[in-house]
Amino acid sequence: MRRISISVGHFPRNHLKVGRVVWLSLGQLSPICTAAVLCSFGCSSSSPSLLAQTTPAQDPAGITRSQKPENTRPKTAPKGPLLDLVSYQVPMPSDCQVAAKIRATVNGAPILDDEVREAIYPFLLKIQQRPEAERNKLRMEEYNKQLQQLIEREIIVQDVKERLKDKPQILEKLEDAARKEFDKAVRRYKENSGAKSDEEFKLILRQSGMSLEGMQRQVTRQFMATEYIKNLVFPAIERIGHEQIAEYYQLHPEEFRIPDGVTWQDIFIDSSKFPNRDASRQFAEQLVAKARAGEDFHAMVKQYDQGDSSYRNGEGYGHHRGEIKPTEAETILFNLHDGEVGPVVELKYGFHVLRLVKREYAGLKPLDEKTQTGIRNKLQGEVFEREYKRVIAVLKRNAAVEISTTP
Prior knowledge:
Elements: E1 20-24, E2 35-38, H1 50-53, E3 97-106, E4 109-112, H2 113-126, H3 132-163, H4 168-193, H5 198-207, H6 212-238, H7 242-251, E5 257-258, E6 261-270, H8 277-292, H9 297-304, H10 328-333, E7 345-346, E8 350-360, E9 363-364, H11 369-397, E10 400-404
Parallel strand pairs: 1-10
Antiparallel strand pairs: 2-3, 3-4, 3-10, 5-9, 6-8, 7-8
Helix pairs in contact: 2-3, 3-6, 4-6, 6-11, 7-11
């Protein structure tokens, strides 16, 4: 597993300080602002967007707010679901301009609504053909899921910077690696999108619901968080050895059972394409003879098949008993040896020429290198998830997280 070594010392399992997670209504959220609003004599601004200006290390107290008398009692937000998602727009006076909407803060650092929207956009594209009621439900679930992931990522990144504040060289190394990861992501995205210029690439991003600045923030911060978590959980992952793999294999035999099965190749000869049925049978017999003489069966499929196996790269339909078509081929296939060509199978509309590629007998997969690799990957994934949840739980207890419940 590739990782960047980050020496942060011992990560305590318990902390004394207990943080707070506060769910706020619109009125209660006024200290951190639901929307950052630029309001002054004409209420226009030439400043860059808040997304580009604000970083988690900054104090959101510096974000411009709409002005109102101190003694004005804030309105209570209506009760309802967490968010009204993408379709919501903040109603503002005509002489004001919304710069950004803050969805949550982590220790005072804002997570903008735009960040969450960019994160869910690919998912929205996938579900756009679903019925509206289902689509709205899935959209809300995905929004909340991505919001929580962004909160967790922000908590991790803040912890990284706090632990490495006295080790600037290590932090710089990590940030440099994150920038390189972003550069690779941009090159890869450009190649896949076919963009010919930077402007065309930015246009494609906008059409995909993203911005270059947002993409940079997502990629670099995700990279830093992932590398940091890897370093925290890597000792536990390293302890997975052959003993743990063998024990898992013995305790979960149901995962390694192999049903009786065959992998085979098929050529179909359509009798309607010959002068008469005898001619098509004779041609099928000639193909059997060629195959038994050692001619490349795969090449023969490409050249002679008149059925649908050529669309499956020559592979016959079905692998296990009861699945194989035509059903007349099943008994023959299960009595062949690997590489053997069977007799012609006669059907009403033509003939099949069969070749067995591989026979798998019912039983358990051997604990070979491939099986061990699969078990190791699964155990590593389980350990990573368990340790990640533990680390996040500790960090969350020491973080002040505020989430807007207003749309």
